[in-house]
Design goal:
9 helices, 8 strands, 14% strand
């Protein structure tokens, strides 16, 4: 019998998906599959996919369905995801991707689809203050007065503002989210699979709401 959980986490950029996914990954002992991390790794390694993705990311746009579906399908066939489950962060982002995931996961269905809902003005503020370790991807929040150069507490790498975290790029991504990703909520809502979580509370409170919703969904299945 296959153990673990298989989760989809949805939400605007800056809603706290990365933080909460890492906590849930440890809590449920399943891999955190972040498509953003996978794409940035491809950019750093200068792969063909990375070259394609870099141009799109720097323009504040979303990588196309075909590339994303192939990337995720390959990852979900790895042993850890097949045996223990996974937490999907950043996929699906469109209905086309959701339909493809339904086909990919038909033998091991998704347990819960959760939308971490945070108002747009709050996520703009959060993302503008976000800083990221260039090496390990750890996230920090700039509060003013940080040491320069800023080094990561985890690995000692350089902590920088990502090129796609400028106000113009943030607004373009949020506009794309509204136009391309919001229909995804309707797709899952019509199927009765969507649970909306208020993400504007403290991280501990949001985590408690997420785990309660996941555990309730598993009891129903």
């Amino acid at each position: 019998m296959i153990s673990g959980v298989r989760l989809i986490i949805i939400g605007r950029q800056g809603a706290g998906k990365g933080t909460q996914c890492l906590r849930m990954s440890r809590h449920y002992v399943v891999p955190h599959v972040s498509t953003g991390d996978m794409l940035r790794a491809a950019v750093r390694e200068d792969t063909e996919l990375g070259k394609q993705a870099e141009q799109v990311i720097q323009a504040g746009q979303l990588v196309g369905d075909e590339i994303m579906i192939s990337l995720v399908a390959e990852r979900l066939e790895q042993d850890d995801a097949r045996s223990r489950g996974y937490i999907l962060d950043g996929f699906p982002r469109t209905v086309v991707q959701a339909e493809a995931l339904d086909r990919i996961s038909v033998d091991r269905p998704i347990d819960a689809v959760l939308d971490i809902d945070v108002p747009r003005d709050m996520v703009i503020q959060r993302i503008s203050a976000r800083r990221t370790c260039r090496d390990c991807g750890a996230n920090y929040t700039a509060k003013g007065g940080e040491r320069s150069p800023w080094t990561c507490d985890t690995c000692g790498g350089d902590v920088v503002q990502r090129a796609d975290d400028t106000p113009d790029a943030i607004n373009r991504r949020l506009d794309l989210y509204e136009s391309q990703t919001s229909p995804l909520l309707d797709y899952y809502d019509r199927q009765g699979r969507l649970t909306v979580i208020d993400g504007s509370a403290s991280p501990d409170e949001v985590f408690a709401r997420l785990t309660a919703a996941i555990d309730a969904a598993r009891r129903r299945s």
